[in-house]
Amino acid sequence: MYDIIFANNKTRGTTLTDQLKGKKPLFSCVIGVTETAKIPGISAAGKNPDITDYTPPADVELLQLGRCKCIPGVPVTPEGIPTPALITMSALKLADIPSLVVSAGLQVKPYVPFLDLGGKPGRDIRTGRALDNAEEVMNRAKIAGENLSKTADYLVIGESIPGGTTTALGILLAMGIDAKGKVSSSMPNNPHELKIKTVEEGLKASGAKVGDFAQDPIKAVSSVGDPMIPAHAGLVLGAADRVPVIMAGGTQMAAALAVVKASNSTVLDNVAIGTTRWVITDKTSDLKGLVAEIADVPILATDLNFGQSSFDGLKAYEAGVVKEGVGAGGAAMAAMLKSKGKITKEVLLREIEKNYRQILKV
Amino acid sequence: MYDIIFANNKTRGTTLTDQLKGKKPLFSCVIGVTETAKIPGISAAGKNPDITDYTPPADVELLQLGRCKCIPGVPVTPEGIPTPALITMSALKLADIPSLVVSAGLQVKPYVPFLDLGGKPGRDIRTGRALDNAEEVMNRAKIAGENLSKTADYLVIGESIPGGTTTALGILLAMGIDAKGKVSSSMPNNPHELKIKTVEEGLKASGAKVGDFAQDPIKAVSSVGDPMIPAHAGLVLGAADRVPVIMAGGTQMAAALAVVKASNSTVLDNVAIGTTRWVITDKTSDLKGLVAEIADVPILATDLNFGQSSFDGLKAYEAGVVKEGVGAGGAAMAAMLKSKGKITKEVLLREIEKNYRQILKV
Question: ∠A128-A323-B151 over CA atoms, to 5°?
Fold first, then answer.
């Protein structure tokens, strides 16, 4: 349907998209930081590791102001490829979709309104003590999710947290999910060995082995996770009782899904993963396999294609850079669904290019 | 209609309530603090002036958790009369209305999710320098209001800020509105002289005279106002372009209305004041007169009556204690409207008494 590719549980995926056609979504973006992102070679969500603290606030400023305020320009990879927030912002604007920023724990606050859940930045997971108050953050996120579920026909919940696939690997391994070599990366060359080594150091420091926290998601995220995950999972847990929730992101959503399942598996019927074609066709990761290990929920992927773009910064997405983030895939499909297909991938690309030109002054 | 009393612009008031019957509101509560509340004799929104910092966070905890967490029990006046948040909480619960807490500037953070607008607690207005970043807070509130207006059929925006009628008087006088002796009080004996003296000291310290800031609402609130007002007005300005907004409160809403009008008078067509009978029948204040001076917007008052209550803490409302706060009047009318009249004042009183009994264990 429209420009959406169905993977994992296609039956429920098509039923869901049928049901959501023309309906009104709320887009929410959970932002956070972890010191893990500053390990050299882990993250490309920033020009260099030291400025990754600015990427999440800059991303949401782009969504709500149409420009970044805490940094000049927009967040870029070390090669200069721009943030996927450009996609999200263009989709929300075209389809007039409201957004709510949720902070799970930040070093730098955005210059836009954000929902504070009492979370703090995450420590380097090699300490084995990533988070102090994950349970409180998850409980507050549930309250927020409950309230938000009464304001929209469905929720689309994205994320921005540099280093997030490494911490996702941490949570997945701590919970006993076979995730080695399966998490994605914003870099074309996925540094699996470095991620695994980082997680293994963290597990060792926490005194735990792979699978020890299969039934204890709070311990998993508190030891080797990041603040985004308990906030994201809490929103899902609070909302999916009442309305469908699209968990918008790449392989990090597998970690959030594992936490949701271990907390309250009854909401899984109302949950789908929303991502991009770049993630589900990525040969260096395996979102489909990861999700299948956890729960039989649909994966929906927006068929974005920047191959014909006149901008090298966008064309680079076809070479496997960035791939996803800031709920880009989920926001794009929500725009398509809300407009009943009037917003196609071509319409979206034109809007993205227009915004790219205006914002980057190229 | 239902148990709603119409005052000021009854024509538009009845049209509006007709239009809102059965529709879905979002309730938002703007909380903040000002050192002004600690001047002895100014505020009864707390057992004593020193603990007024806890009243706003405790109020919103009651709304979202059904109990307070940052204090034992619930906020009370020095005589032990409980917070109007009990009314708001009961109304939202009965009518299944979602809520969003907005912080305009706090000393004590609530244990529930809150939207952060970058605001800080207000200084004692006798300094003449009440706020540092009122414009930034108002701009962020506008962004929030725009987004929220896409999630509901209408907004009801309440407030909780101890000392707020004194700072409201400050703003009204700074903007040239004849407000002396007209602002309300949570005490039966309204300390008008103390409030006027406090504001006059503040105006003098700021180097301004009555009316000097008639065209400059940011200067008015920055000199002798409080953080709640620019946040509240910003939400209204952001939302009322698209959906009706009920400004829920007593005479403080006149100050917010003056700020809205001076910022963008075109939204006034979509705005009404929502309050309680206790406010519009109060002989020590004059909400109707204040609003009439500013703009011809409807005043709607919920006809709550606690005269027959079996609890002295509720009966005291009939003697002019508390009167309004935490958007009690607006939330109560939203519950009546959403339920198309099924929730009457009697139904609401029973729910309030039930919650009173459970929470205060009486």
Answer: 90
Tokens 């730098």 correspond to A108
pTM: 0.97
Q: Which residues of chain A have pLDDT under 50?
A: none
The first and second tokens of residue A281, run together, are 């066709």
Q: Do A113 and B148 touch (CB under 8 A)?
A: no
> At the topology level of CATH, where does A4-360 sit?
Rossmann fold (3.40.50)
Nearest to B140 among A112, A141, A150 (CB): A112
Q: Does A98 touch chain B (CB under 8 A)?
A: yes
CB B166 within 8 A of CB B125: yes
Banded model confidence at residue B72, pLDDT cuts 50, 70, 90: very high
Name the more confident of B360 and B107: B107
How many angstroms away from the CA of B26 is the closest CA of chain A? Answer: 7
Model confidence at B248, in pLDDT bands (50, 70, 90)?
very high
B229 touches chain A (CB under 8 A): no
Residues 14-43 of chain A with CB under 8 A from chain B are: 24, 26
What pLDDT is stored for residue A45 in this prediction?
Answer: 85
Domain positions in chain A are 4-360
With CA atoms as reference, report the closest residue to B29 among B235, B291, B172. B235
Q: Regarding beta strands B114-116 and A114-116, do their DSSP bridges make them parallel or antiparallel, or are they unpaired?
A: antiparallel
Q: How far is B34 from chain A (nearest CA, A)?
A: 21
Beta partners for B271?
B245
Residues 6+ positions from A351 with CB-CB distance below 8 Å: A90, A91, A93, A94
pLDDT of residue A50: 85
Task: Considering only the beta carbons, identify the residue of A24, A112, A136 that sits closest to B143.
Answer: A112
Does A150 contact B103 at a Cβ distance shorter than 8 Å? no
Question: A285: phi > 0 → left, psi -120 to 50 → alpha, else beta; which?
Answer: beta
Q: What is the pLDDT of residue B109?
A: 98
Q: Which residues contact B10 (CB under 8 A, 6 or more apart)?
A: B298
Report CA torsion sign: B84, B90, B92, B95: negative
Residue B242 CB partners (closer than 8 Å, separation 6+): B146, B149, B150
Share above pLDDT 70 across residues of chain B, in percent, rounded to a whole number? 100
A66 and chain B: CB distance < 8 Å anywhere?
Answer: no
Interface contact flag, A150 B96, Cβ < 8 Å: yes
Instruction: Confirm if A195 and A251 have CB atoms less than 8 A apart.
Output: no
Report the residue from A109, A117, A150 with minimal CB separation from B113.
A117
What is the length of chain A? 362
| pLDDT greater than 90 at residue B111 | yes
To the nearest whole Å, the CA of A117 is away from the closest chain B CA by: 5
pLDDT score for B361: 85
Rounded to whole angstroms, how far apart are CA atoms A117 and A254?
Answer: 22
For chain B, say whether A103 makes contact (Cβ under 8 Å): yes
Tell me, what's the ipTM? 0.96
Q: Are B113 and A144 in contact (CB < 8 Å)? A: yes
Identify the closest residue of chain A to B26 by CA–CA distance. A151
Does pLDDT of B1 surpass 80? no
Residue A47 is predicted with a pLDDT of 85
Q: What's the rounded Cα separation, in Å, for the pair B261 and B221?
A: 14
Asked if the Cβ–Cβ distance from A98 to B148 is below 8 Å, we say yes
* pLDDT value at residue A46: 83
Collapsing DSSP to helix, strand or coil, B172 comes out as helix
Strands (DSSP E) found in chain A: 4-7, 25-32, 99-105, 114-116, 154-160, 245-248, 271-276, 299-302
Give tens-digit pLDDT for A314-352. 999 999 999 999 999 999 999 999 999 999 999 999 999
